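Student: Please help interpret what follows.
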Amino acid sequence: VQLQASGGGLVQPGGSLRLSCAASGSIFRINVMGWYRQAPGKQRELVANIANSGERNYAGSVKGRFTISRDNAKNTVYLQMNNLRPEDTAVYYCNLKEVRIISNDYWGQGTLVTVSS
């Protein structure tokens, strides 16, 4: 399984960005796709994830500002980020977790989001 992320960049505080991540390969049908981020000097943290059932989870710091969605037919997950803050600056990583007894965990290459004036 390969994950290809895109959509990062430089944006001013209060601006918006949309990240996309397309999965390809032999993908187990029951899975959770999501986004993590890692800021300089900090640990990687969950931003949001969404199961193929549509169930969503968000980090408290992004609730009400970020929206995660997915297109199961395209095996693609999106992260719409609104009202961005400087503290959202990080490398964002796409993730796919299989939901089965012996599962695999896949990561994309990361895309940099910089929020700065």
In short: The mean pLDDT is 95. The first strand starts at residue 2 and ends at 6. The two ends are 37 Å apart (CA to CA).
